[in-house]
Amino acid sequence: AMEQLPSRRLAERTFAIVTAPMAMTWGEPREGAAVQTQLLLGERLLLLDEAADGGYVLAHGADGYVGWVRSDSIIRVTADEAREWERAPAALMTRDVLAGGIRVPAGARLPVVRGPDGDSVELRLPPGPADRGEHSAFRAPLDSVILSPGEARGQAVATTAGGDLST
To answer: pTM of the entire structure?
Structure first.
């Protein structure tokens, strides 16, 4: 049987943000299947399907790969929350940094809460496990990030080319 994705099983819950420092995606909804790619903390995902037991979701990552990721590695968000997360001014981590016991890996892209102040910048962590507590943001050394404008990736190119990705 064929089904159009995103699956109706997801209802309106088709966006998510990665909450684990790194999450593997698998070719099947089980660990040990062929690895498709790695997702990093803060990456926004489009959800396509959900395993019958709810333990895995089929996700389309920013790198274009599709694979099954553990449900406990993500948090589902509304379309508006996903858009806000993606469009916020952001910082790209150039090296691993510890933030309140959480490893923020090189390559992670996180929204800026407060711009550069001295030798650091305050970055937002995605909502995560209950044990994260008050650690919803952290200060990252400026030498560990590359700051980017608030436009969503690709928006500047589309605007220059005469397109509009805002819908």
So the answer is: 0.81
